[in-house]
Amino acid sequence: MTQNTASKTAIVTGGASGIGLAIVEKFIQQNIKTIVIGRDEQKLKDVKDKFGELCITESYDLSNLEGIPALVERLAQEHGRLDILVNNAGINQKKPFVEVTDEEFQRINTTNVTAVFALSREVVKTMLPHGDGSIVNISSMASQYGIPKVISYTASKSAIEGMTRAMATELSPMGIRINCVAPGFIRTAMSATAMKSDPERMNRALSRTPMGDFGSPADVAEAVYFFASDGARYVTGTVLPVDGGNSIGF
To answer: Does the keyword Cytoplasm belong to this entry (predicted)?
Structure first.
């Protein structure tokens, strides 16, 4: 079924690399005007050069919470109706539990949770008058089961899944759907480096993944696009693992 997305505008945070970049590419293939929010100006320039006029780049650090309302207000004024928000930006930290400081825990959760809340709140304000909109949050397999040495990240992604359900129950009666994608082991430049340096971890990850391979960023992008499209018009409050069965593997 062909989805009517040609006139829609999306915001994708962390859209200049990895999974976010794949989401941006999928959206632009579907003729969705896509506003990419990121911190690395060179990566943003590269994305703009690659995708052209349907791609709008915005250099902004989402940990600057105070500036988010003005940012969204300006984007709405410049680009009109905001139809889709993908909360993809996130940071991680690998460190033993007892060594994580309060400041480190707070820093991860400011970017991964509080900024998602604040950005979503402001975008929802622009969606409410239209009675329509779709927000897709990105969580992680870390929220599906316990992974050692990522306590801050795990806490943040578990919060994202809870927020997804709470937002969906409150906002869906007003026409705004909220869903979540939980990627498993996905091949990105960052994950490839981590896996190559830890063969034992890579073998363990593959051994508990029933499909026997890692996913690609495009696999996640397809799921995000489904949630953002009219094809998911009766789907809300859902967390979808895209993980080759890893979260149910043994």
So the answer is: no
Please indicate, yes or no, if residue 112 is contained in any of the structural domains.
yes
Let me know: does 51 contact 29? Beta carbons within 8 Å.
no
Kindly give the parts of the chain with pLDDT less than 70: 1-6
> Annotated catalytic sites, by residue?
153
pLDDT of residue 2: 43
pLDDT tens-place string over residues 69-89: 999 999 999 999 999 999 999
Helix (H, G, I), strand (E, B) or coil at 184: coil
Residue 210 placed within a domain: no
Q: What is the CATH classification number for the domain harbouring 64?
A: 3.40.50.720
C-alpha pair distances (Å), 127 with each of 44, 121, 172: 26, 10, 12
Q: What's the helix, strand, coil split of the chain in %, to 5?
A: 55, 15, 30
Instruction: Output the pTM of the full model.
Output: 0.95
Number of domains, the chain: 1
